[in-house]
Write a structure and sequence with these properties.
CATH topology of the largest domain in chain B: Rossmann fold
Strand content of chain B: 15-25%
Number of strands of chain A: 4
Oligomer: heterodimer
Strand order of the largest sheet of chain A: 1-4
Structural class of chain B: alpha/beta
Largest sheet of chain B: 7 strands, mixed
Order of helices and strands of chain B: EHEHEHEHHEHEHEEHHHEEHEEHEHEHE
CATH class of one domain in chain A: Alpha Beta
Order of helices and strands of chain A: EHEEHE
Structural class of chain A: alpha+beta
CATH architecture of the largest domain in chain B: 3-Layer(aba) Sandwich
Number of domains of chain B: 2
Radius of gyration of chain B: 21 Å
Helix content of chain B: 40-55%
Helix content of chain A: 10-25%
CATH topology of one domain in chain A: Alpha-Beta Plaits
Largest sheet of chain A: 2 strands, antiparallel
CATH class of the largest domain in chain B: Alpha Beta
Radius of gyration of chain A: 17 Å
Chain lengths: 98, 390
Amino acid sequence: MSTKRKDTDLTWQDIEIGAAISTPGNAAEYKTGDWRSERPIWNKDRCIKCGICYLFCPEGCVSHDKEGYFEADLYYCKGCGICARECWTQAISMVPEG
Amino acid sequence: MEMVGMEGSLAMAEAVRLANVDVIAAYPITPQTHIVERLAEMVANGELNAEYIPVESEHSAMSACLGSSATGARTFTATAGQGLELMHEVLYVASGLRLPIVMGVANRALSSPLSVWGDHSDVMAVRDCGWIQIFAENGQQALDLTVCAFRIGEHPNVLFPVMIHIDGFHLSHVVEPLFLLDKSQVEGFLPPYHYPFALDTDKPVTIGAFTVPILYTEARKSMEAALRSTRDIINEVWNEFAKVSGRQYRAVEHYRTEDADTLLLTMGSYSEIAMEAIDQLRDRNEKVGLIRLRLWRPFPFEELRKATGRCQTLVVLDRCISPGGPPGPVCSEVKAALYSQKKRPKIAGFIGGLGGRDLSVPEFVKMIERGKEIAEAGGEEVETIGVRGQ
């Protein structure tokens, strides 16, 4: 399946034989961020830069910035809240979207 | 070629050898066992240069076939009855991925009660798995149609797995006279296999991936349309095979149907005994004939409509029960196929030949005569032929 076009534009005639995906790794284009109802917000005053949020994120979307503080890539973050639950210092709070 | 006496299972194994397959992954089950036993023997003694994978179940057999076929290896397996049901979910993967695996099925009844003997319960349970499905009616066809199956499945405009059905015991275990095929005949007919989408690390693809609701409908529609479009190619391959062998196969085959008012419809080995019944009735100047569905999937709608266009009564034999449903899957599909026709025959369905029960010539004669009565009376009931008790 080509990812040049939006999924909603693909017709059944566009589907490749065997529904094969000929552009490997294109799952990275799939936006899971719009599943989110809450987003994680880091409180830098509490954060000890331990990286437990980075380790536990099931989506692998937490990374650190130049100063060593952590943040979520909101294109992928589904808002599951595992990072907030696991954070040792309760530095992460889940804030409703919208 | 000279005529030889050969068991149906061994004829199918011979076809697989002639097709020079690369991989066989199989698990033995009655009444299919002789096919894969013979193939194992051929690989062991060097008659066939192939990888033989002895697996721990039919689910694993079909799973191994998926991997093998996806690498571009010509792949065969065989099963029957419970074994076909155990590989059920993997059958859908094979057709969804468009992998041209060829499988022999020695049709067998399903438990419970346990029966190793033949009927079509196993086939009907995998009716919608997206495979091309073809029925043989004798040992010669077990050989011929298996050779053709590789050519059909691997055609670049087909790329679907193919099942060749041979009735358990009545075909798998009966020694019949048949003509073998010459290696050079098959080589000319069946070119070396080049799967256009074989797994290749230089051109990586993802297959069998998760599909979200926004794409699944399109993926299934695409696959279904492709299966439907294979009908012409199947006929073309059979026409080409006729040039090589002198034996012509068709999606719907006719026996003494000229001027027939009443037609009997059968699939598989019982077609041959049905011909005897037709001959007896023709001797009595009754205008009866026989049609056989050679091709079960994709269903030959046009050919069936053409074949039944002028008859008054159509009698359909099912070797399977659809419990609580329309009686007989074949009969209900035939009715559905003819429903839209302005002129259509009255249809009487019979269930018979379950779990290896023989149907005799007099029973076929009775079925045709009783079928005419039911159709004339406008009856909807389906009778079970040969059952004890009223």
